[in-house]
Amino acid sequence: MHILGLDAHSATFSMAILNSKGKVCQEVKRDTSAENLIEVVRAAPGPKVLVVEESHMAQWVKRTVERYVDKLVVCDPKRNKWISHDEFNDDASSAEKLAKLYHGNYTKEIRHPDDEGAKLRGLFLHYYDLNHQLTRFKNKLKAVFRQEAIRTAGQGIYKDEDHELWLKKLREQKHLQHAARQRFELIDTLEGLKQETYEVMLKLAKKDKAFAVLESIPGVGPMIATGYQALIETPHRFSRKNKLWSYAGFGNKRHTSDEKVYEEHASHCGNRPLKWLVLEHFLHAVQCARKENRFKRYYEALRRKGLDETAARRTVCRALLSTVRAVWIKEEEYRDNQLN
Prior knowledge:
Elements: E1 2-8, E2 12-18, E3 24-31, H1 34-43, E4 48-53, H2 58-65, E5 71-75, H3 81-84, H4 91-103, E6 109-110, H5 115-146, H6 163-168, H7 174-205, H8 210-215, H9 222-232, H10 241-247, E7 252-257, E8 260-266, H11 272-287, H12 294-304, H13 309-330
Parallel strand pairs: 1-4, 4-5
Antiparallel strand pairs: 1-2, 2-3, 5-6, 7-8
Helix pairs in contact: 5-7, 5-9, 7-9, 9-11, 10-13, 11-12, 11-13, 12-13
């Protein structure tokens, strides 16, 4: 089995080809294009596996050359410390090191969806980014008014019909009024873009029967159901529920040596958009839930036992993820059962 290590950029790509013994037998550098990449990959002796680090170009590489290799591996760059922390690095050496890391079984593979899944994931991540940008500018808008000791509690400041009323409060400070007016315009624009993206991704998500199954879980609305479909793609990729917890940023970190525990706490690793989505699910299923449900009862029971708010929330988020995985695998709608 030959291993092809690829370091790809928008202008050029470098590839190192290792033989079955782990020795470099060829190095190539070409201008980046689909034709050049396909030509280099097809010319490599087979059978062959292509290894590339996760990046904005990884999905393009997968779509372009997956059919020409026996296996394509997209790996987690955070695990490749030999590349990122080495004193000397360039494209050629990075491609060679990547191939050698795979040969030594030191890489961690990242799953990439097919074209339809990639479309939904791309749309959801764009929606997630728009939402964060919207929150950022809303905070900046309120900060303008706080400079003049004007209270802005609640959501009333964002109503379209009240923009001029709020701006009049800054008539004595023309520079602040100018900044506030432009931030109102930015917020209105982002709201429109966010709604457009929501409608497009929702139309795509509803084609999958998993959408209706996920929506049956307490706290799951169209946006959260779409997010789970986009970021998890399939529950079968997680053989155990604790693997899904870790992927979503709700795993644990533990370092021991010589039977001594040096670190043991909640892990900060994981898929950040998915963690945000699960916390939104918790908000709607527990904190803002209008109806009683198993998760709300579970959270209240944990709090009565003495768990602090953070620990109880983390435990319930794990339960939410376990439920998402279970109903999705069974393809059955959620049924609310009393806790034992």
